[in-house]
Fold:
Amino acid sequence: MTSADVKKYLVVFFITALIFFTAISLANSISDKKLEEIRAIEDRVAIDILSSETQFSLLAESSCDAVNTPLLSEELSSLGNKLAFAEEERGSKDPEVRSLKKSYSLLLIKDYLLMKRISEKCKINPVSILYFYSNEGECGDCEREGYVLTHLQKKYPQLRIYAFDYHLPLSAVKTLIVVKKVENDLPALVINEKQYYGFQSVEDIEKAVPALAVLASSTPTGTE
Amino acid sequence: MSFALLYPILFISLYFEVFLFVTYFEKRGVIKREKISATLKSYPSVTIIVPCYNEEKTVLKTITSLLALEYPKEKLSILVVDDGSTDRTSEVVTSLSKEQCIRVIRKENGGKYTALNEGLLETTSDIVGCLDADSFVEKNALEHIIPYFENTLVMAVVPSIVVDRPQNVLQMVQHIEYYWGIFLRKALSYLGALYVTPGPFTLFRRGVFARLGNYVEGHKTEDLEFALRMQKNGYIIVNAHNAHVHTVSPRTFRGLYVQRVRWTYGFLKNVLDYKDMFFKKEYGHLGILVLPMATATIFTALYAMGMTLWILGEHIVTAIDRIATVVFSFSFESFRIDWFYFNIDGVLLVSVVLSLLTIMLVLLGKKLTEGNMRLSPGIFYFFFIYPLIAPLWLAKAVYNVVLSRTVVWK
Structure:
């Protein structure tokens, strides 16, 4: 081995490291772009909700006809999917993901509360499910419950599903858990103020929520 | 399953490919100068040993190609060693023995290395080589090889081996793989790190055998063992990339599998026998980089395959779980293309770079052989089929080594 050989080993190491870290930096910047997209969607949804709240406040004294029922927008559901994907990609402990997840959970709670107020005031009866899950490994059935709820969401687009990470360190979620009296026995569903623990199949939920049949007859599903 | 090894494996694989590429780049001027030496100062005497065992279908073409070599006839001898064939090989070679330069020896079957040793005993020429009876030389192959022996330090010259007329997809895959082999052989030649002197038409100075001894069984890869023995003793092996030898590649998966299990098993057993060459500076690039990398590649390929199967298995289990949970639910919405859901991570991007570099090196191999770098459909077959099938023979070879089971020739 000559000194030229040693130099060659070092030069090749430098070139390899350059290619390697360029590829990794590029991947990281793509991943950051994805988080930016999530943040942008969150901002849009926040404005939508704020707009609905403001509209509701302005028109509270007048007719309900003027209030646009804020559907849990497709965008909010797409946001949930993208956040779940980012969580899988970057890990649930990633500080950026955690922060976005907190904002997302807040948006869900705000949407839930607004919907409740509108339904009380305007005598409409939206069907909503609160779903509490955990990503921390102790919830074997959470993944299956997720499949069931995704299926139901596709089958009944007007069904409003609010999914919360039970262990998310966010006071608003903790308060929701206390208010809805949800125990740490996951997966847990809250339907019409009643708690359901353990895995609930499509049939179980359809039985627990007879109003779904009404949604089915009023909404073309187009998913099966 | 742990993915922790993935980044170091990718880094090391990339390092090796960059090292080969830089070596080629450094020597590109030398490659251009390696032209035919039209006027050789002298023509050394050459004997080509053709060991054959049940090669009735191909031996005639093999010998005919040797007879067509552009080399002074009085300097060229062909020695056919029939290693106890039980088919019509004997009849076919007898019909050829009328040619003045052909001699035929018959012996009891004892394996290829015994046939080669029998041939070496009968040889007195300056240069001696072997041509497997399923391979054919181009007529100018010898003219391209002999000039390398004008350097008195060169002890063996290996040719470029190409797949003879690929007919089916499996042979096209091998066709491309051999281009990679051609590039690799040239790069290793410049690094002084060739560790195989292939049966198809590697030529040696006869004195090498006198000094190092004849062939041994070498775990059924006597050409690999002999090359390692030469390297260990500091003998120089070079590659004549312009000397083309065509070889009949296996047509069926079973044939390819058996051949590759033998090659990989032979490699692993021989590197175990020569393990003291690893990471030793006195063996140059071969000891420091090439042997460790060649060995590691077998295990990293198995790791990559294991990981792919693991991920695939997880997806299948999830899909089954999903179907079992909500019956069957199909939605075109699932197929909406959104860039967001492409999992573009560091592993993927480095793998893409690695694949592009591999294509580049394969094309350089093609350029060395055919003078052009045009893409052919075979390269796609190579990229999609080879990674699926290669781990099968690698796993079997490792299994045989671990459990001390031997392998078969055919």
